[in-house]
Amino acid sequence: QVQLVESGGGLVQPGGSLRLSCVASGFTFTSYHMSWYRQAPGKERELVATIDMTGTITSYVDSVQGRFTISRDNAKNTMALQMNNLKPEDTALYYCNSLSARWDWGQGTQVTVSS
User: CB–CB of 22/6 below 8 Å?
Assistant: First the structure.
């Protein structure tokens, strides 16, 4: 059974940082490009960042480029998203999944950026 468990969210002031974690199980983690997604209230879920199977190629949506860093540890079946210089518009529920969003969504982790 596939499980994706996100954690690390919280309330942070603008300009602050958070590090999100994703623990994956039930599938061959190293066979998939993995991504972080987010969904803000009243908006569609959007793709935020992607990392290839080997962890060497990354890509980001323009709005987070230079502020967020995606990484993965294939030995531990985990993925992370380091988020720096957070802005109020980054407020959303953050999820991890494969690039094709193949698996059922986990519960996500809430990130709230507010003063």
Answer: yes
